[in-house]
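Deadline looming. Please check this record:
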Amino acid sequence: DAYFHIRNADYITENFKPIFHDDLSYGGRYLLNSHVFHYVLAAFNFILPSTLAYKLIPEILLAALVFLVFAIAKELTGNETAALFSALISSVMPIMSTSTLNQVSIYSLTLLLLLYMIYIFFDLRRNVNWLVLLSLLLPLVHPVGFFFAASMIVYLLLARLEMIEVDEISKESITLLVFFNVLIAFLLFKKAFLETGLGAVWQNVPTLLLDSYFRNINILEMISSVGVITIIFGIIGFLFALRAKKKSIYVLSAFVLTDFILLALKMVDFNTGLMIFGLLLAIISSIAFDKFVLYF
């Protein structure tokens, strides 16, 4: 993964265009990739030495995740101490370290955009322009953009089931967001879907290797990857959250539910799903910590 990103960024730096056909792959293959992340790395490659750019920029983006976790948790609880607790446990999550630390990982940018979109959705009236812009950018960077769109649809379903009124600007924004994702999927992956059908969803990974990328949910592995404290406080926070009929609660619940369903159906890479799941639980755990602070 890291070599793939470095090779593509280096190629863009030298030739000002991405690799469309990978001659080094067995038999050669066309790369179905927007290369947005590679252009970002290449841009910093012009400013900084390549070694520094590839090590420093992804780590800065990952470090920024902690501030977003804090901001979302504070928006959720209004308690800075609880928000700091969420930020702390998100910064020491094992799955984040093993999957992204000290390597060129696209998730450093992807997860940052995902959390920022969740944050601005809480106050959509002031940030609708940003949401529209990022709803175009995120699916171009990574298929996690389609996860965001699916989660928004689940949010609407949950709100309808609980008879919670969703304002018009949220409905219109979600409709536009879903349209952008369908359009981008059609433009980028039309050929892949026509040639491989639903195999494109699983990135056309060979059957023999499929189980290593898209694995069954393993509770013990999930606990060790996300962290015991995050799991315990996240579940308690989720139980407390069910009592409150707030927009932010239902938005986060929709993301957790969508992520869990995609993991169960093996429609998302296991490590990717766990990273998202862990960050969401870390945010929701602020609710449990807030209640404990009030109790004691």
Notes: The chain has a mean pLDDT of 82. The first helix runs from residue 2 to 15. The beta strands are 21-22, 29-30.
